[in-house]
């Protein structure tokens, strides 16, 4: 969460002239702002919509980059679909994401105590990210262009 998936994904796709899909944006485009979805349907309702948007994005065989919401990987159906895709885990830490968390302020999963919630979510999600990832990039202290450079090198070597 707040690892920079959407920004890195969008920039990576632009650099390589690929289609970019943000599954959180797909959900928001179809169902409204994510905080409102959480308020009306709860986390479970949001996760159902999210799983459908991930499945739709992955079903599109157009070469591209897909950015998933931080909790999307917790769905077992999504995990199965991701095993057939190239998955990159953007690893980070609280120090790196804290300014983003403070700036955005509209993340339902971080309501209450954002720092404590981020740490809890990271602890729960990290093993899943690691198990699904074909590649991991440590983004700590890196600007977006540097992350994209590393990612491009890794993907070119893996191709």
TrEMBL record:
EC numbers: 2.7.1.71
Free-text function comment from the UniProt entry: Catalyzes the specific phosphorylation of the 3-hydroxyl group of shikimic acid using ATP as a cosubstrate.
Enzyme class: transferase
Record has tRNA-binding as a keyword: no
InterPro entries, A to Z: P-loop_NTPase, Shikimate/glucono_kinase, Shikimate_kinase/TSH1, Shikimate_kinase_CS
UniProt binding sites for ATP: 2-7, 107
Record GO terms (molecular function): ATP binding; magnesium ion binding; shikimate kinase activity
Keyword annotations of the record: Amino-acid biosynthesis, Aromatic amino acid biosynthesis, ATP-binding, Cytoplasm, Kinase, Magnesium, Metal-binding, Nucleotide-binding, Transferase
Coiled coil: none
The keyword Transferase belongs to this UniProt entry's keyword annotation: yes
Record-level GO cellular component terms: cytosol
Compartments where found: Cytoplasm
Catalytic activity: shikimate + ATP = 3-phosphoshikimate + ADP + H(+)
Name listed for the protein in its UniProt record: Shikimate kinase
GO biological process, one term: amino acid biosynthetic process
Binding site for Mg(2+): 6
Pathway involvement of the protein, from the record: Metabolic intermediate biosynthesis; chorismate biosynthesis; chorismate from D-erythrose 4-phosphate and phosphoenolpyruvate: step 5/7
Essential cofactor(s): Mg(2+)
Primary subcellular site in the record, as a coarse category: cytoplasm
Gene3D superfamilies given in the database record: P-loop containing nucleotide triphosphate hydrolases
Quaternary structure annotation from Swiss-Prot or TrEMBL: Monomer.
Cofactor binding remark: Binds 1 Mg(2+) ion per subunit.
Family to which this protein belongs: Belongs to the shikimate kinase family.
């Amino acid at each position: 969460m707040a690892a920079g998936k959407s920004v890195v994904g969008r920039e990576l796709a632009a650099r390589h002239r690929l289609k970019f899909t943000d599954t959180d944006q797909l959900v928001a485009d179809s169902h409204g702002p994510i905080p409102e979805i959480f308020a009306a349907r709860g986390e479970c309702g949001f996760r159902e919509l999210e799983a459908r948007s991930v499945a739709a994005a992955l079903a599109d065989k157009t070469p591209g980059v897909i950015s998933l919401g931080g909790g999307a990987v917790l769905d077992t159906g999504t995990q199965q679909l991701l095993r057939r895709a190239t998955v990159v885990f953007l690893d980070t830490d609280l120090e790196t994401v804290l300014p983003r968390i403070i700036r955005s302020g509209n993340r339902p999963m971080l309501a209450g105590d954002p720092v404590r919630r981020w740490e809890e979510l990271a602890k729960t999600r990290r093993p899943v990210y690691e198990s699904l990832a074909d590649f991991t990039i440590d983004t700590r202290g890196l600007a977006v262009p540097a992350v994209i450079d590393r990612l491009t090198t890794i993907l070119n070597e893996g191709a």
